[in-house]
Amino acid sequence: xxxxxxxxxxxxxxxxxxxxxxxxxxxxxxxxxxxxxxxxxxxxxxxxxxxxxxxxxxxxxxxxxxxxxxxxxxxxxxxxxxxxxxxxxxxxxxxxxxxxxxxxxxxxxxxxxxxxxxxxxxxxxxxxxxxxxxxxxxxxxxxxxxxxxxxxxxxxxxxxxxxxxxxxxxxxxxxxxxxxxxxxxxxxxxxxxxxxxxxxxxxxxxxxxxxxxxxxxxxxxxxxxxxxxxxxxxxxxxxxxxxxxxxxxxxxxxxxxxxxxxxxxxxxxxxxxxxxxxxxxxxxxxxxxxxxxxxxxxxxxxxxxxxxxxxxxxxxxxxxxxxxxxxxxxxxxxxxxxxxxxxxxxxxxxxxxxxxxxxxxxxxxxxxxxxxxxxxxxxxxxxxxxxxxxxxxxxxxxxxxxxxxxxxxxxxxxxxxxxxxxxxxxxxxxxxxxxxxxxxxxxxxxxxxxxxxxxxxxxxxxxxxxxxxxxxxxxxxxxxxxxxxxxxxxxxxxxxxxxxxxxxxxxxxxxxxxxxxxxxxxxxxxxxxxxxxxxxxxxxxxxxxxxxxxxxxx
Length: 554
Prior knowledge:
Region (Disordered): 378-404, 534-554
Domain Xaa-Pro dipeptidyl-peptidase C-terminal: 312-549
Keywords: Hydrolase
InterPro entries: AB_hydrolase_fold, CocE/Ser_esterase, Galactose-bd-like_sf, Xaa-Pro-like_dom, Xaa-Pro_dipept_C
Distance between the termini: 57 Å
Protein name: CocE/NonD family hydrolase
Shape: globular
Largest sheet: 10 strands, mixed
Structural class: alpha+beta
Radius of gyration: 24 Å
Strand content: 25-35%
Strand order of the largest sheet: 1-2-4-3-5-6-9-10-11-12
């Protein structure tokens, strides 16, 4: 055993594996050959002694290094699993060049076939990991279950992830600047020599990154923060259309229904991947293989997430005959009530759509309004700021929007105080009849819970761009008055509005830097440098008055 392996095996056991007795060895620097001759580096964790009944070998593929704090390999091996942790191509000492998403299918398939040939392989194989480590699982699971079932994973454990990173990069036509440039910055820092240098930089406020969010054109943001172009960031900006081959060849959404192995998923109401992860859940449910699902009150990274202990329990149930730990397939946290609910499915049965209209008086109400409109001015040189919302930090959550709602570039519509509690359970959808003096505009919609004391706490939100390069094929045609009816899907939510609270809906034209500001010219996002001040108008009359459809659990 290596020195590090001995230290890890003696570390105080504060995780889900503490009830298991296994010590372990670590073999570092295994070379795994890919089909093109490139070798990827991996570490092999093996429990000491005989594990009865046998548990699967777990494969973890990561671009972030092979350390146990993210891969959870020490905890998994202490629970009796053999664990192979591999660095993705071009990272952590592995050969080749790192091209996010593009090589994970072929490298993952080659790795799984190699693992099955090794004498230390237990005979069954599971996959494990979160975020990009979850994407590497989707990259192989569907295709292998369909075309190579003998080498396919026998179970998947997926946390805060999705099968296609295109839609999170270009969310309904809007570029996810904070996440895309922030992630590129962190990956670029990993290329610096010395872990201490990287750790020191990671702890400091990243003023360069904050300044780079304001750079136009967007293609200059990576140079502003890193001092040089970052290849994949430039690729993302250059491909606004998700129908481009660049995105379609790295999307694995179509193969999700082909996954026949059991799946456990965990995510959070404030995670950046939440809508798409729940759509992947729905794909498997429609195919007759609904995953086990946990949704909690956290964001992309949280120590509160039970992903590790629940994954261990899930795998032991399937492969060791352990009794189930769950009374129902879905466990979801109801925000606003601060309660966990065990449910048969997501969304829960009994959810119905309620239509609430935006009135010119600022009222939100089921009644249909008369004629009228609401106007505001959007200035991309002073963009409407992001406030709360899904995030990658350790503690995202509801944020008070009361001051934000007093901005002149935010239109707000509020219901009367509720006579009875109202529970959202699903994905709200706004239908906004909208026109702009600019060639391109964004419509950003947020739902808030207005408390009797005046706090307006964020619940969920969503954005939709029209008039841009990436949306041209799907944009609705304007009517004779120049209005378009835009459908804006919001983040899924499970939230209780208490009696006496009010439901608020905001409509604005951005959330910078979470989403890059829309300069208004309709030019390609990568190169647009000029900005256009826009007069925006929401229509409340006509055959299709602006509204929001709320999925209400009764």
